[in-house]
Automatic annotation (TrEMBL):
<dbReference type="InterPro" id="IPR009057">
    <property type="entry name" value="Homeodomain-like_sf"/>
</dbReference>
<dbReference type="InterPro" id="IPR018060">
    <property type="entry name" value="HTH_AraC"/>
</dbReference>
<dbReference type="InterPro" id="IPR032687">
    <property type="entry name" value="AraC-type_N"/>
</dbReference>
<protein>
    <submittedName>
        <fullName>AraC-like DNA-binding protein</fullName>
    </submittedName>
</protein>
<dbReference type="Pfam" id="PF12833">
    <property type="entry name" value="HTH_18"/>
</dbReference>
<keyword id="KW-0805">Transcription regulation</keyword>
<keyword id="KW-0804">Transcription</keyword>
<feature type="domain" description="HTH araC/xylS-type">
    <location>
        <begin position="228"/>
        <end position="330"/>
    </location>
</feature>
<keyword id="KW-0238">DNA-binding</keyword>
<dbReference type="Pfam" id="PF12625">
    <property type="entry name" value="Arabinose_bd"/>
</dbReference>
Length: 335
């Protein structure tokens, strides 16, 4: 079954399409969507269809910042009822934790991880659609929305060091500089935002603890949509953990509050195994990294969790039928 996301994810689509002179109707039809489906922000739509709509629109509109343009006018209220909970969290850290806890009411395909190192924090974010698909537009939309969420809570105190992307820079950085008022880093090893650890603990001036308790009860009383399978949840974890060198079953189980045996059993019940899921994610990320010419083969192997280049070469050759150096040479010739 295809993964689903809220129609609110595509808010502002028509405005951006109109600005670029696009006719949305054939694009919607090709993606299997309609205006009616997008009219209700809480309606669930296929994630693959949303990804195709964004990528097709960006390509036909000649606009590699289509997703980011959609994020530019996002407001806290666009998070729906969960926004009432977020605005009353005492700190940005609490708001991020709430976003992760209730992501099934927002976008189940978003993976967020807060990594702290001394005085610096990396807020990693990935949009993890169905296997075999990827989207520059979706990740820029997600990062834009996250950046604006942090800004809405901290106001002028939100001054991150940088916003990072695994893909390359666009020809024109005007939109990126307008949305992200900080350093921009492309061709990096992760998608996410780097900020001071103090930012996560800065008091939210809008927070009302009593209201937060009330809204939490309200949010928890809402009927949850059909949840993703455990295999999908593990895929999201691995998208974050693999480039960090922590893509182990022990790490995933710990992050999900269960022991290894319980995780294995739940995967077995879903007719899946951890090794199969790990290899599937590794294959998807391998294509992402290999297509980026700025990543050396040594870096690609490290990001995929291989300690030795020879191990990476053996695995890649078995999966793709050719050595990584030859694959990249053929890819460059096609491009």
């Amino acid at each position: 079954m295809s993964s689903l996301i809220r129609a609110a994810t595509l808010k502002n689509y028509f405005e951006v399409a109109q600005e670029l002179g696009l006719n949305p109707q054939p694009l919607l039809h090709a993606a299997g969507l309609s205006r009616t489906m997008l009219a209700d922000p809480d309606r669930r739509i296929p994630a693959a269809a949303a990804v195709r709509l964004l990528e097709d629109s960006a390509r036909l509109g000649g606009c590699d910042t289509f997703g980011l343009r959609m994020a530019e006018s996002r407001q806290l209220s666009d998070f729906g009822v969960v926004s009432l909970l977020l605005i009353h969290q005492p700190t940005l850290r609490d708001a991020l934790l709430a976003t992760m806890q209730y992501r099934h009411l927002l976008n189940e395909l978003l993976a967020i991880h807060v990594e702290e190192s001394g005085r610096t924090v990396v807020i990693r974010e990935e949009f993890v659609p169905d296997a075999g698909t990827s989207s520059r537009q979706a990740i820029e939309l997600a990062l834009g929305a996250l950046y604006r969420l942090c800004g809405a809570l901290l106001g002028p105190h939100w001054k991150p060091h940088s916003v990072n992307f695994t893909h390359g820079a666009p020809e024109n950085l005007l939109v990126h500089r307008r949305v992200f008022r900080c350093a921009l880093e492309f061709d990096r090893e992760f998608n996410g935002i780097v900020c001071d650890a103090a930012d996560l603990n800065f008091p939210n001036p809008s927070a009302d603890p009593a209201m937060a308790v009330y809204v939490k009860r309200l949010v928890e009383s809402l009927p949850a949509p059909d949840r993703n399978s455990i295999a999908t949840d593990v895929r999201k974890d691995l998208y974050i953990l693999m480039p960090m060198g922590q893509a182990t079953i022990e790490q995933v189980a710990r992050g999900r509050g269960m022991n290894v045996r319980t995780l294995q059993r739940r995967l077995e019940e879903a007719n899946e195994t951890f090794s199969n899921t790990l290899n599937s994610v590794r294959t998807e990320l391998a294509l992402r990294y290999m297509e980026n010419r700025r990543y050396s083969l040594q870096v690609v192997g490290r990001l995929l969790g291989f300690s030795a280049p020879s191990s990476f070469t053996r695995w890649f050759s078995a999966e793709f039928g050719t050595a990584p150096r030859e694959w990249r040479k053929a890819f460059r010739q096609r491009g």
